[in-house]
Design goal:
Number of domains: 3
Structural class: alpha/beta
CATH class of the largest domain: Alpha Beta
Distance between the termini: 56 Å
Shape: elongated
CATH architecture of the largest domain: 3-Layer(aba) Sandwich
Largest sheet: 10 strands, mixed
Helix content: 25-40%
Length: 751
Amino acid sequence: MNKRLLILFFASFFVTNLIADPVPPARNKDGSLVSGILEAQFDPSNALFPLPNNLLYPTAPPIDLTTNYRPTDPDDYTDPRVALSSLDGFSTTEKWVANFTQNLGGLPPIIQPGDIDPASVVPGQSVRVFEVTTTGYPYLGVTGIVRELTPVAEFVAVAPGDGVLAIAPTSPLKQFTTYMAVLTNDINDLAGNDATPSQTYNLTKRRTPLVDENGNSTVPLFPDSLAQALEPLRQATMSMELSAASAGVNPDDIVLSWTVHTQSITPTLKLMRSIAEPAPTVIAPSGWDTSAVGGFGLADISIGIITLPYYGGIPTEENPSAPLTDFWKAEPGAYIPPFDQVPFLDPTSTNITIANPFPVPTGMQTVPLLVTMPNENSGFSKPEGGWPVVIYGHGLTRNRTDMLAIADAIAQTGRVAVAMDQPLHGVVPNVEPQLTPFYIENTPFGAIANERTFDLDFWNAAEGTLQPDGLADQSGFWSFNPANLQATRDNIRQGEVDWSVLALSLQNMDLDGDETPDLNTFDVALVSQSAGGFLAVPFAAVEPIITRMYVNVTGGGIVRSLNGGAFGPNFLQPFLAGLAGLEPGTTEYEQYLLSAQTIVDSGDSINWAAELAPRIPIVHNQIIDDDTVPNTVPGAPLAGSEALNRALGLASYSTTQANPDGVNGVARFLQPADHSSLFRPTNPAVTAEMQGQMASFIGSNGTMVVVGNSDLLVPVPEPAPAKAADEKKIGKADNKSKNRLGLKPAESAKH
C-alpha cells in the first residue's frame, strides 16, 4: 500500500467535508459527546497491526506454509524473527497484542499510546475470540464460526497500559487451527470515549468492492493502485465481520478484527516415535553399590552406553560450535501426503512443519547410560518376567548421576532404574569433581562414547564472558541457547526422541552379561525432576511403554517459567543484556520471551498435557514458592507448576490416596522444602517424604500414593462422605468413565 496516496486521499476527503454542510457533534454510544479519539491501530503498509496475525503468511513464492516476519537477514539464526519465520503457525500458549493510540488533536496531530480504560476490556463482551473455519492458506478468509471461546476458562483480556490490549490463552489453543479476535467500541478510553477503527480499517469495513471488474477504484478520489491494494484486506475484513455477526456481534461496533492460525505441535514427535527403533546398548557393572555414593547399598551401580540417531549439530574440527549454531532441518521439499500434492510448495524448503515433519539425521551418537539394579540387600530378586523399570529424567544443568540419590528408594520397590543425559548435558569433572569416576572418558567406554556436553568450552565462567577459558562448560549450559532459539527447541525435542529410543531399547538390555534381556518392558514407569518434567510430558504422551509418571517440581511454559525463576536473573537476563542489550521490563525483552516461547511450543509440556492426561496415572510433587520453577508467573497463565497441574487435571491431596483406576494428583510441599529436595536431603524429612510418595506410587502401578507426614504438605480438606445412594451413582459413573477411556492395565502397557 502507498502511504503517501492514502494521506492525500484523506486530506482531500477532509477538505471536501469542510465545505459541506456542518454535521452534528460526534457522540459516544452512551450519548455523551466525544472528547477524544481512541483508535485501534491497523496500517499494514507500515506493519502496524495486531500480532500474531495471519497477514504474516506470504502470498507469493516461496511458500512452505511458514510465516514470514520479514527479518533483515533470513540467515541470521540469532534473530528471533528468523526462527519465527520457520514455523507453520503461531503460538498455542502466548498472548496476542493489539495497540491503541490517542489522538490529542493539533496540526500535525499529536499521537500517543491510548489510555484504555481497563474496566472496559471485558472478555466475551468487548473482546470476543472465536474458533473459525477459513478458505485455507493463508487463512484470511473466514467462512464460519466453529465456537466461541469461554472467557476465563480459555482466555483473558487485559489493558496493562501504554495503549496495549493483550489477549492471553488460559488453556492451550488447538494446534493448526484458526482463531479470530473481534474488538468492539465497547472498549473506552479513561474519559469514556468509545474506541474507533483506524482510517485504513474503516475502509476495509466497506461492504462493496473497492475496485470494479477492471481494477478501477470505485471510491471517489481514491487512486486505483491503493484501492487494488486494499481490496484483499476488505474481503478478509468483510468475511470476519459477517461471521462475527452470525454470533451476535454488530459489525458497526467492530473496531478491529484479525485471524491467528496456530502452529502444528504433535506431528513431528509422533512421527518420530513411529519410526524409532531399538538401539544397541552395552551395560557393565561398576563394582559399586549405592553405599559408595552415600546411599544404603540396596542397589548395584552399572555404567553403559547407547547409540542414538542425532539430528542436531555435532562438533567437528571445521565447525566446533555446531551444537550452538545448528538445528533440525528437513530434507528439502520432502512433503508428506497430502501436502506432496500441493503444487505451490517450495521444493527447497528445509523447515520442519506439518507438511515436512521429519528431520534429517546428522549422525549417530554413542552416549552414557547409568543403571541401578536391586541387590540382595533390597530383599528383591529378578522376577521371572524380568525387572520392572523406572526411567529417570534429570533437570536443567544436572546430569544422569542425580538418579543415584533415589536409586535405593526405587530398589525398595524391586525396580531397575535407568538414566540418560539430556542433550548437551553430562558429567563435567571440572564443575563437579566428585563425579569424575563417572565421566565417560574415565571408563572402559571412553574410546567409543562421549559425554553429551561434547565438552564444549565457549563460556568463561569466572568472567561471565562469551569466550573459552580452557574448562568444559557446565552441564546443560548450552541446551537452552538464548542466541539460537531453534536449537533450544530442537534440544528439547531431541531429548524426547532419545527417550523413545531408550524405551524401545529396554527390551534387549542385558544387565548381567549372560546375553539375555533382563527387563520387563510391560512395567515401565517414568520419574522426572524439574526441567526433566518439561520433556517428560510430551515423551510420555507419545510413548505407550510408559504406564505411569511421577514428576517433581516441574511445570509448563518452559521459557516463561525459567525466566520467572532463578534461571532468569542468574543467566537468561544477563546473557540477553550482554548479547542484544535487552533489559527485563522493556517491550523488547517481552517480545523476546513471547518469541522464544512460541518457538519451543512444539516440545513444551503444557501443549502435551491434555494428550497425556487420559492415558496414565500421574503424580506431581511441587514446592510452594519454588524459586526455580515458580508456581505461577505473572502475566503468563500457561507458565509455572500450577498451569501444568490444571492442564493435567491433577487433584490436590495431602493424605494417602488410593484408586484402582490410577491416582492423578498433586501434593504441594511447604518450606523448608526446596527445588532439589528429591535428591538432596538438606531437609531429610522432606526428602524422605518425597521419595516415599514416589516409591509408593510407582511400586503400586500408579494406584496408590502413601503420605507419611502430612505436616509437610499444604492441607487439603477431605471431601464429605457420600450417601449410600450417591455412592452407587458414583460407582456407575466411574465405571463408565473407565470404559470411555479404555484404560485396562494390559492395554495401556502394550507397545
